[in-house]
Design brief:
By secondary structure, the chain is mainly alpha-helical. It has 17 helices and 5 strands. The strands form 2 sheets. The protein has a 3-stranded parallel sheet.
């Protein structure tokens, strides 16, 4: 079969919420062109400073000026650096513990406090969370499902509890990776954004009630705070990437000077970079699930961004995609086996249940064809 690809980057038509214009250019590249040529960044910086001036406390006032959700990754580390060192605010950072934290991820979380910033580390109910991890894997093909939810709900709970109205997020993923026009132009992250673009895949926290006997009380932190509490505190979540030109590579070089560490022994599973998804041992499995559903993975995401930022030609990006995308995630699967107690056969059976039968080849009995390394045989080629 033949898949339509963006004429500028490498995104395929199979990517959800991606649109092509008449010239065959995807919505992510259109948004990138607007970033380069249309948006008045000076005015947006003025707008941002006007907003934060409303929340910045006086020199003798006790309290936090803003709250920043952090994972210890390059982006959230940059958010913390920017708000403290560039904007002069006193931020409170909140970290929702990932599923299976790496040593490097822990070191980068600890580094944020070494930058002179207070950090609240949310240690979750392991039993309840694990039940949702396994159920998310089986039900929607995403073992990171409860993590997607927790990183957006826990910080808002803390903002309400500490009476901190201003919440600073990083990039708008819909702008950087392509999405509907209204989502690309959005500058706020709220309940509506979470439900539509937060990676919940049509599943809601209410749907987890009853799984392994879980009650609503067990799942308390995963319910978004009430509208009444949000309004009482006046919580507003802003995408920093709406107000300032977002270039993760340049920002990486800044945070490395402030203690952020990358993976020195090679790239992260599923891609060619060594600076993203450093905190989670099972991210390779998560990214592979996207590949089996839509025919592209993390290497495509990274190559597209590098092409748009003129760090790679399209041909160079295509070569990297062919080298790294679609490889069976042996490390991620092994880690998930240890975490979940599932066998490799059980995991592979669920992977097959989410694999796109149009994109990948099958034998006469409907079994997916795989090579000696366990990689799926494609019905398409990367172009």
């Amino acid at each position: 079969m033949k898949i339509k690809y963006c004429s500028k980057c490498l995104f395929p038509e199979t990517k959800p919420d991606l649109f092509f214009n008449e010239e065959g250019v995807c919505s992510a590249c259109v948004a990138a062109d607007q970033k380069d040529n249309t948006i008045d960044w000076k005015q947006r910086e003025i707008d941002f400073n006007t907003i934060i001036d409303k929340y910045k406390k006086g020199p003798n006032e006790i309290g936090y000026d803003c709250l920043i959700p952090v994972s210890g990754g390059k982006d959230s580390t940059y958010q913390a650096y920017f708000m403290k060192e560039v904007c002069g605010l006193n931020p409170l950072c909140v970290c929702f513990e990932t599923t299976n934290l790496t040593e490097l991820g822990q070191a980068n979380i600890d580094n944020i406090s070494k930058m002179g910033i207070d950090v609240i580390y949310f240690k979750k109910n392991y039993k309840a969370y694990k039940s949702m991890v396994v159920e998310g894997f089986k039900r929607v093909g995403d073992e990171m499902w409860p993590n997607h939810l927790g990183i957006f709900t826990i910080p808002i709970h803390i903002a309400v509890k500490f009476n901190i109205p201003l919440v600073i997020w990083g990039e708008n993923p819909q702008q950087e990776y392509g999405g509907p026009v209204e989502s690309i132009e959005n500058k706020h992250l709220n309940r509506k954004w979470l439900e539509e673009f937060g990676g919940l895949l049509g599943n809601r926290i209410q749907d987890m009630v009853g799984v392994d006997g879980l009650t609503e009380k067990d799942l308390t932190p995963y319910f978004y705070p009430s509208d009444e509490d949000i309004d009482r505190v006046g919580v507003v979540g802003l995408f920093l990437g709406h107000y300032f030109f977002w270039d993760a590579q340049k920002q990486l070089e800044i945070v490395k000077k402030h203690g952020f560490a990358v993976k020195e022994d090679g790239p992260v599973e599923g891609t060619y970079t060594n600076y993203e998804n450093l905190d989670e041992k099972m991210h390779g499995l998560h990214d592979y699930l996207k590949y089996v559903k839509y025919g592209f993975g993390r290497a495509t995401d990274h190559a597209c961004i590098d092409v748009r930022n003129n760090r790679l030609t399209r041909e160079e990006g295509l070569k990297l995609v062919r080298q790294y995308d679609g490889k069976y995630p042996h490390y991620g699967v092994n880690e998930f086996m240890k975490y979940s107690g599932m066998t490799k056969e059980e995991i592979d059976m669920i992977l097959d249940s989410f694999t796109n039968s149009v994109l990948f080849a099958q034998d006469e009995e409907g079994n997916f064809l795989k090579d000696a390394q366990g990689n799926l045989v494609r019905n398409f080629d990367f172009e």
